């Protein structure tokens, strides 16, 4: 019968205890490192979680509201000496009580704004600059002046007109903008008023002839012929 060596048992117990202790030390060390890393990353994870929770449209609104109006004309585009101007006719559809073949008729409404000086109303527009596309410039000017964002659609056209300020010729490029969101705060809130009107009212209050031509193009594009005859 083999004789159990107490010395061997003691040595085995010693090595086992050391192994467990070393493992615990390594585990605790790893946990401290992990906790330290999490503490560093927590602010970053918080910011990222905010982006994932917010909708893309809300993120766009937050990003846009942080900007201010552009000033100066260092990047202004010119063509043949004509200043290049871009703008939008913001529009939406409003349900009415009128019906056509059992379906509710939707009235086309456009958003007009007041000029910084002078009477009347107009559509948002401004200079097209070299570091942006025409569509981006149209969206930017509309947000800055009217405080709305949405989908910029195919261009309505281009009209040449003289500036009321100095008589110099400008090219005005206008786009329809299907409004998705109306902001409570925007860069020129303190300088302009905005108002939703139907197209007949817009024809009356819009002071610039070339903008009224752009409005007629929008009406031809968005309203069926039968509804246009009723205007």
From TrEMBL:
It comes from Erythroxylum novogranatense. Residues 81-219 form the Nudix hydrolase domain. One of its GO terms (cellular component) is nucleus. SUPFAM superfamilies: Nudix (SSF55811). Pfam families: NUDIX. GO terms for molecular function: metal ion binding; pyrophosphatase activity. Belongs to the Nudix hydrolase family. The keyword Magnesium applies. Keywords: Hydrolase, Magnesium, Manganese, Metal-binding. This is Nudix hydrolase domain-containing protein. It comes from the Eukaryota. Its cofactor is Mg(2+); Mn(2+).
